[in-house]
Give the backbone structure.
Amino acid sequence: MNNNSEAKVATQSDHVPGIPDLEQDDGQGQWQRVSPIAILYFAVAVLRFFIGQLVYLIPPFILLFNRIKDNPGLAIGLLSGVLLLVVVSAILKFYYFQYRLSAGTVEIRSGVISKKYLNLPFNRIQNIKLEQPIFYRPADYVCLQLDTAGSVQQEARLVALSRPFAEALKKHILAFHQQAATMAEHAARDDVIPATTAETEQLLNQRSLRDLIIHGISNNRIWLFLGLAAPFYNQLADKILDGLLQVGIDIPAMFDPTQQSWMIIGLYALSLTMFIMLLLTLFSVFGSVLSFYGYTLHKKQDNYIRRSGLLTRHEVSMRLSRLQQVALKRDWLDMVLGRVNLSFEQINGQQQFATEQKIMVPSVTPAEASALLSNAYPDNQLRNIEFNAISRRFIWRNIVLFWIPAAIIGPVMLWLQQQPQLAALSVIPLTFWALLIVMRWYRYGYAQDDIYYYLRRGYFGVDYYCFAKYKLQQVQYKQSWLMRRPGLCTVKLLTACGALEIPFVKEADGRALLEQGLWQMQRSKKAWM
Amino acid sequence: MHPADSFSNLQLRSEQLTPLQGLLLEPLARRYRLLRQGVNAVFFILVWSLLLGLYLQPWWPLSVAISDASYHGLWIVPLLGLLRALYCWQADKHKLFALREHDISYKSGIFFQAMITQPVVRIQHIELKQGPLERKTALARLQLFSAGGAMHTFEIPGLQLEQAQQIRQFVLQHKDALQDEQQQ
């Protein structure tokens, strides 16, 4: 087996004293228990679980406290029952927790009622952490956490290993990685052109103050903040009115129809709205400058390095191999101003990667965006590829299933409640909604070439996504009962930074998308990160 | 590791590859369907007998509303149970899986059919899960984790234990599965 031969090389060159199992072949080692101190660890975990579950029982408990004081026997009984449960389950958990090491993998069996059997090859481990809860300290035990990119939770914990053993194991796993890495490098060396300008940083993009101001205007995130602050509006309004009154501006009087003519009130309202809009935009521009001031994007060997920030300088770097997908996003204001927000996206939603965020290049011009994209994906064809439209049934589905019911029920309800004006006015949002559905259909487009997938979507703005086929993690092919007859399907493509869905595609096209992607991915044998 | 070994798909012509559409799908274990029917039946019988007990018990006088509700419940609950049993039976029939050289597919759904295909090269780790009833009936659930996120964990329920172990072995021994990655 391939894995074993490789692992043997690793163990021979980097012999780990004290872990004889690591020289065993897969499935040959002995099942082992961790140190009994793990009982304490499990007890704490169970107790924590209990407390987490029972936290909402605390208020009734406090209310009943007087009764309990009168009748302590029951309470003590209950409490000792819970404690007994904790102890017994901790012991059982310890008893059933077993692990086995072999040349290339670690296996863990656990679970008392519901059994779990975990199998983790060393080369899938992304991150190794040693954790020492306070009660492990006297005897110097540690909990070894092995993370993979598979899910957000830590997948494997070897609870209660002695520190030297854990350190040795950690070293071994890391050495195993290096071994694999150097081998991969040897393999790759032939087709890599020796990097001549390896050490110098190459400037890819730079944002001027003007760009950042445009970014602030077109990406007004202040609305989010306003939404969050909604509960405090009343208090805030009172304070502001008080303040204005003190400097001699009486807003309620200005808007009082008994004191002013309608014309003047209209003018006041208009100018006030303009003023508030201006203020909000200024805020947004300020925020944009604050976070993106002095923005530069450099490339050094295979790394992208982003530096920006007015007060605190942030530096984010990302290896090109970690890049999962490039997104070019424009909302309607970006369309008007002729700008694009480009982002290099990498693995998503994983705590251990929190330090490595995606790299966003704010408000670049379409030409710059295209240059950046070509730098990352030299052979992409986003600029001249032809997108395929999705089926018109997408519109009908949304209209018939959602829009028509709402369009009938909403106005009728308002009419029945003696609100004919509101019923008539509801035509406006309904029309807008219908327009959104049609625009969504209009914007949806997909394409593929030998190497990349391209997806276009949006409403009034338009977003483009481009990713290499070998970054695929999983594919899904979906078809509802109503889609089967017209021969349509929905295709979902998963990468490590999220899922992209292409709805209402012709069956043959959907199959071709999946099949060719899988074929490319499996054939290329490239790693996804 | 053999860095430049042959990739067998290369030697095949593309029309010789089995398309996803033409896969011969295998059903889940029959025991799984029976187990689900059993659990369903036990649950609804339990609810029904509770209702019957409530309706017939002589100790508390029931209000008219509750008495009426439990009376109607006595025929509604078995009906629901029957509908669910029929649905589960059909749904379980539509749960199928297939293995190709380089990926595993799982198909499910009566009205909303979905086929998920997980390439073996992208599997990060594997879990074999067994609840108490599954252990009694020697069934197992196989979970394959990829970097596509926790929302998109690939799971095949109701496999015979030996079958699940074989698939796990297939994944672990797959020559690409343990080869790529980690070129950092």
